[in-house]
Amino acid sequence: AVFRGPDMVIELANEEVLKLWRKDSSVIGKPIIKAIPELEGQPFLELMQGVYKTGIPWEGKKIPAYVEKDGTIKQGYYNLLYKALHDSDGTISGLICMGYDVTDQIRHEQQKDDFIKMASHELKTPVTTVKGYIQLLMAKYAGTNDPVLAGSLAVIESQMSKLAKLMTDLLDVNKLETGIFLLKKEMFLIENLINEVV
User: Fold this and answer.
1) Partner of 120 for a Cys bridge, out of 6, 39, 45, 167, CB 3.0 to 4.6 A?
2) Using DSSP, how many helices (H) and how many strands (E) does the chain show?
């Protein structure tokens, strides 16, 4: 879309932007706040005017916005870019706005994150139970002369520990993405880490 003047009068809006705004071409020629009144109280007009005054572009990713759809205000998420338009003498005469609706992408990411959290929590109980029984069997057969049994239990215990760590890592990735990750610092032997990576 293209806006002109300090009132951000809509000069041009392509079909995709009109869809994004949930409006038709009747908004062209109107100041944005009259064309899209639901923007009142949202930060977009202020951001646009900041770009209009300074000429410094503004870009935002996954920005929540409320737009009217079917008579109700609905939340969506958008990637936005505002850039100043200059006249031949270099003065700023308006803005160009590029926007992408990423609402479905955000919702899919949330569903994925919810699934990872649920699956990790649900798997923890059986994994912990199996690990407990393996440790009991290892203690019971600690002095066994059967190398296959001892080796098998050690392998099973090691693989269950890896599975438990994988589940913790999945939850940690989810926490990192949501910004609530707490770092647990502890001393460790660097050679153990090297051997594990090798």
Assistant:
1) 167
2) 6, 5
pLDDT in tens, 100-148: 889 888 888 888 878 877 877 788 888 888 888 888 888 888 888 888 8
How many residues are present in the chain? 198
d(CA 88, CA 93): 10
**Segment (H or E) for 3:** strand 2-4
> CA 138, CA 70: separation in Å to the nearest integer?
64
Note if the pTM is more than 0.70.
no
Instruction: Provide the token pair at 144.
Output: 């066994």
Could you tell me which residues are beta bridge partners of residue 99? 80
Token representation of residue 125: 């109980």
How far is residue 196 from each of residues 83, 132, 162, measured CA to CA in Å?
A: 50, 23, 11
Helix H segments across 25-146? 32-35, 44-54, 103-140
5-8: list long-range contacts, CB under 8 Å, 24+ apart: 5/93, 5/94, 6/49, 6/52, 7/31, 7/32, 7/33, 8/32, 8/33, 8/45, 8/48, 8/49, 8/52, 8/94, 8/95
